[in-house]
Task: inverse folding
């Protein structure tokens, strides 16, 4: 059996096992946590497509916020279905990514300067949402107009479902799509171009790599996927506010989760999502709201620890130990 066939069989078995989870698990709370893990894993995977090549962005809270708010506002004010609102939101995120990314890459604004530009982008989007309080609800947030009334448990047009099992399968498909895109990039020439660019831009350009186009392509793909994740997150939660979808805290959470899980491994962001969601739920159940901004403080402290002690993340570290054990066994 070839390695490709074996991998395909493993994928099929894994996806099949996940598909029967809602049949086995009847707890709405557990299904809710798993839906959030899949959605956040997708968003974290989108960020890792930039982060693994040295493009550290703190602006993904902006893209996520655009996805969530654009779909909700079109539905609430114009009655436009999320099926049409999502492509519009993704397009807006792509345009914003080009607007910010092209000047930065064209004039070689890289490293911490690029991070600061994207950080400012998130704050601009958050402030805009708050300023347009007459339409967006401001800091109080907004709820998509619900069509689920007595006797109605789902609406395909509004993308609203009372049964969490439906969103489980939607979130599962979203997560698998994110992994597929990650793998396509990983196996394309774009990966080698970006690896060369991340090491030395001048050397990469001298061998024919279009540095600006390569960086912009990765940024656009990452922004589009993040906006898609934000749109579906808003549809699932049925409530959004600037602090949960378009704030600097969200951007920092994304960065922390990917670094914690391992940004250089395909399933690293998923491990990071599991880790952060369990940490968040543990803090919520154990401490609640007794200490303000405790989760952000812990995220910041752990981010520093992971960067210093475990830069490859949890999954990356496990893979290193596994390779070391195999090498030792082969040598013996």
Result:
């Amino acid at each position: 059996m070839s390695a490709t066939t074996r991998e395909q069989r493993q994928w099929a078995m894994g996806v099949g096992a996940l598909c029967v989870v809602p049949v086995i698990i009847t707890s709405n709370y557990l299904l809710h946590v798993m839906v959030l893990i899949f959605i956040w894993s997708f968003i974290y995977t989108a960020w890792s497509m930039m982060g693994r090549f040295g493009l550290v962005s703190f602006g993904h809270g902006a893209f996520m916020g655009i996805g969530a708010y654009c779909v909700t506002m079109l539905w609430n004010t114009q009655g436009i279905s999320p099926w049409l609102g999502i492509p519009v939101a993704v397009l807006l995120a792509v345009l914003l990514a080009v607007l910010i990314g092209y000047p930065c890459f064209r004039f070689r604004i890289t490293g911490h300067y690029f991070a600061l530009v994207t950080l400012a982008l998130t704050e601009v989007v958050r402030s805009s949402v708050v300023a347009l309080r007459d339409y967006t609800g401001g800091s109080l947030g907004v709820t998509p107009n619900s069509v689920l009334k007595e006797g109605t448990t789902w609406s395909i047009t509004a993308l609203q479902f009372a049964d969490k099992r439906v969103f489980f399968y939607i979130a599962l498909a979203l997560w698998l799509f994110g992994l597929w895109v990650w793998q396509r990039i990983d196996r394309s020439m774009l990966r080698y171009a970006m690896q060369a660019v991340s090491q030395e831009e001048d050397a990469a350009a001298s061998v024919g790599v279009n540095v600006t186009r390569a960086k912009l392509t990765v940024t656009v793909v990452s922004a589009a996927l993040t906006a898609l994740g934000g749109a579906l997150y808003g549809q699932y939660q049925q409530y959004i506010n600037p602090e949960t979808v378009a704030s600097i805290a969200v951007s920092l959470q994304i960065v922390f989760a990917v670094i914690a899980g391992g940004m250089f491994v395909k399933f690293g962001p998923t491990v990071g999502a599991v880790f952060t969601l369990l940490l968040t739920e543990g803090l919520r159940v154990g401490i609640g709201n007794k200490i303000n901004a405790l989760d952000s403080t812990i995220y910041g402290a752990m981010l520093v620890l992971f960067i210093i002690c475990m830069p490859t993340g949890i999954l990356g570290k496990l893979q290193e130990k596994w390779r070391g054990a195999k090498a030792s066994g082969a040598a013996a």
Residues 211-237 form the longest helix (27 residues). The CA atoms of residues 153 and 162 lie 5 Å apart.
